[in-house]
């Protein structure tokens, strides 16, 4: 379970997060909406430890593993998708080649394609970013604008993945300003003026 309590974050004189609190339980699919620059990515960066909050706290249960796609994913640009995913999963010694190959195929990417990621389209890169957020069986998954640049068919594949993650009792939090009607969220939140509000 992820519990965020009273998170505050400022950049210089600009207060981005004023008092952010939420609880995300296993099996929940949660949507955080908000305009660009409202602080959605900042919340995810604080949860993953990429940024430090000015105050407040983030609590996880023992054994929780976070997977995240935040803003534009970074890769080893001159390596293939498979090489990149192998490298990333090996950082935590959690590489499962069969699972990675299956995920690539589900998103219609060829695991044996040697093409460098530098030549991938925005949508293809986004698919690889989604895969790295779930490939290690992470149980808390943070997805920042996950459908950016993805075509309609791939959105269908993404919906299939979300349903499977929910069935596996994993927590998924999606931050986006786009609304995909086919996604049935358990909870909707809006980040407005630095505060999370129930929709």
Automatic annotation (TrEMBL):
Keywords, ordered alphabetically: ATP-binding, Nucleotide-binding, Transport
Coiled coil: none
Domain ABC transporter positions: 2-197
Source organism (scientific name): Lactobacillus panisapium
Name this polypeptide is given: ABC transporter ATP-binding protein
Entry annotated with the keyword Transmembrane: no
Protein origin, superkingdom: Bacteria
A molecular function GO annotation: ATP binding
């Amino acid at each position: 379970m992820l519990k965020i309590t009273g998170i505050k974050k400022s950049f210089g004189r600009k207060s981005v997060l004023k008092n952010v609190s939420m609880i995300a339980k296993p099996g929940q699919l949660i949507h955080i909406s908000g305009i660009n620059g409202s602080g959605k990515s900042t919340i995810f960066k604080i949860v993953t430890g990429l940024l430090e909050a000015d105050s407040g706290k983030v609590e996880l249960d023992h054994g929780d593993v976070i997977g995240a796609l935040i803003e534009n994913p970074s890769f080893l640009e001159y390596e293939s998708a498979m090489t990149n995913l192998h490298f990333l999963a090996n950082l935590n010694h959690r590489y499962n080649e069969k699972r990675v190959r299956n995920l690539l195929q589900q998103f219609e990417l060829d695991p044996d394609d040697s093409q460098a990621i530098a030549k991938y389209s925005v949508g293809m890169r986004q698919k690889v970013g989604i895969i790295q957020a779930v490939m290690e069986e992470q149980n808390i998954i943070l997805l920042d604008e996950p459908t950016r640049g993805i075509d309609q068919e791939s959105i269908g594949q993404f919906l299939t993945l979300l349903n499977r993650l929910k069935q596996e009792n994993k927590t998924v939090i999606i931050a986006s300003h786009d609304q995909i009607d086919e996604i049935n969220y358990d909870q909707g939140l809006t980040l407005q003026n630095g505060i999370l509000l129930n929709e």
